[in-house]
Amino acid sequence: MNLEKLTGHAAMFGANSMWGIMSPVSKMVMAGGAVTPMVMTDCRVLGAAVLFWTLSLFLKRDPVSWKDLLLLLLASQFAIVFNQGSFIFGVSLTSPSTLPSSQPACRS
Fold first, then answer.
1. Sign of CA dihedral 13, 36, 50, 85
2. What is any Pfam family matched here (predicted)?
3. C-alpha angle 43/48/54, rounded to 5°?
4. Tens digits of residue pLDDT in 2-48
5. Of 3, 77, 84, 102, which sits 20 to 30 A from 68 (CA to CA)?
6. CB neighbour list of residue 99: distance below 8 Å, 6 or more residues apart
7. For the chain, how big is the Rg over CA atoms in Å?
8. 62: which DSSP letter?
């Protein structure tokens, strides 16, 4: 297997691992009551913003019009609020016994 394919497989494995660990870790963090769903969502959004901002310092910039930037800003906020907010709020409503049953089974 060449290096490009190995890098792609490693990236897919890492992304899937993080996705699979996300629900149980979120539930454990919120189970104690010290972190509310809103605080958890804020931490995830701010962490991603810092990560992408740092990454953007090392990448070549493409010219994007102000109109498109505004549209991207509105669309990203809409997606963050509904996707992340709904996910974290839903996880906060589950119990540790029902959480694994809501995860899809991985079959080959």
1. positive
2. EamA
3. 125
4. 888 899 999 999 999 988 887 778 777 777 777 887 787 788 888 88
5. 84
6. 23, 24, 27, 91
7. 18
8. P
Structure-block tokens of residue 81: 């609020």
Over residues 59-91, the pLDDT tens digits come to 888 888 999 999 988 988 888 778 877 877 777
C-alpha 81: how far from chain center? 12
DSSP helix/strand/coil, 57: coil
Contact assessment for residue 31 and residue 96, using Cβ atoms and an 8 Å cutoff: yes
CA dihedral over 53, 71, 45, 84, signed as positive or negative: negative
Return the number of other C-beta atoms located less than 10 Å from residue 39's C-beta: 13
Cα 6 to Cα 11: distance, rounded to the nearest angstrom: 9
Euclidean distance between CA atoms 16 and 46, whole angstroms = 21
Quick one: how far is CA 2 from the chain centroid? 29
